[in-house]
Amino acid sequence: MKTKSLLFLLACFCVLLSCNSVVVAQSGFENESLEQRLLQPKLNFDAWLFQKRPTMNLAFDLNSRIVVREGKDKPGFVNWFGIDFVDQIDWNGLPLASVIMQAYAVQVVDLPKTPIIFDDPKDWELQWRFVYLDFDGFAHKGYSLKVGHFQVPFGLEWNSDTTGTLRQYTNAKNLGVKADWGVSVHGTRSGFDYELSLTRGSGNEYRDVGDNHVIAARVGSRFGDTLSWGLSYLDANLTGQDAPIGMTSFPAPQRERWGMDVALTHTKTQWLAEYSRGTNGPQGVWTSLVEFNIEEPADRNLTYIQLTGSGVHSETDLNMTLQSNVGYKKYLGPNISLELQWTHDIELPGAAKPGETGVFQVRYRF
User: Fold this and answer.
1) Measured between alpha carbons, how far is 292 from 133 in angstroms, rounded to an integer?
2) What is the pLDDT of residue 296?
3) Which pLDDT band holds residue 281 (cuts at 50, 70, 90)?
4) φ and ψ at 150, to 5 degrees?
5) 178 contacts: CB under 8 Å, gap ≥ 6
6) Which domains does the chain have, with CATH numbers?
7) What was the pLDDT predicted at 13?
8) Of 1, 9, 8, nearest to 359 (Cα)?
9) Which residue from 271, 200, 268 is spatially nearest to 239, judged by alpha carbons?
10) pLDDT exceeds cutoff 90 at 77
């Protein structure tokens, strides 16, 4: 079962790519035309909505993810249905704020590690991704105010949102919270991007437990330049509840991090790296990531290789995790994507046995 399940994921991915090529070749239509035929009611609705309110956008997100872990008898699944709402609020004809609301119903079934936000191995949960007002009327002066549930400003994730994709950076496991409820000031001043936030420290749900908080900040050069960089800081006292996806338990809620990230971009290729050090309560910790990726500008297909590492220094020992990821994202059209990621455990802490994990995802946004 171990090797066969992982090979089955790879075979499914190859078959789907082959089927897509055959369908397009035989039909004589481009992927965009096929999608228009399938989604004509939604296209008609979008046209009607644009006539009524040009600044408003409404999108739906359907996803199914299969997770196969070496040593498990059967695969796990993650499915979701989400609604994305975006609008612009004006005041006397002048832009006042942008509105973003992303609400998702997420189902998990027998994952290798069930996230703590779910009560059982088979469960549903309402997940708030980003829900905020961004008062950006003075963005041209370098100041905007964000209020709501948004991404904590730290590291590479600040420039490249990986929510809903297999490709991830280190924020969720490293910080203990990826998005949180609160306020932030952000913008561009003297050629540098910055964001300073004060949030609740409760993650998906708004909770008040003692002195829970997250103070986070990032400042850096403009992302997309040939060489860009950023410096980050975080001070947090988390609620200790609602660990993010990928974590089965919540480490010490009190934590501090200092981090830096670098991106080197050249035409279709890119090198990314981030490193942070700090503390979880009394323990010293570090986290790192190095990635090389190739993206085809014409069709947005992405291939990436990652090496991630993290360590916890106890009084007597160092518990280290070292993993490699190889991933590929294929667009079958503007809104349909297939993703495959293979993870190899190089080293795991304690008596945990290294193994292989394969993940396959189909996502449809319309």
Assistant:
1) 34
2) 87
3) confident
4) -145, 175
5) 151, 152, 157, 163, 171, 172, 203, 244
6) 2-365 (2.40.160.10)
7) 52
8) 9
9) 200
10) yes
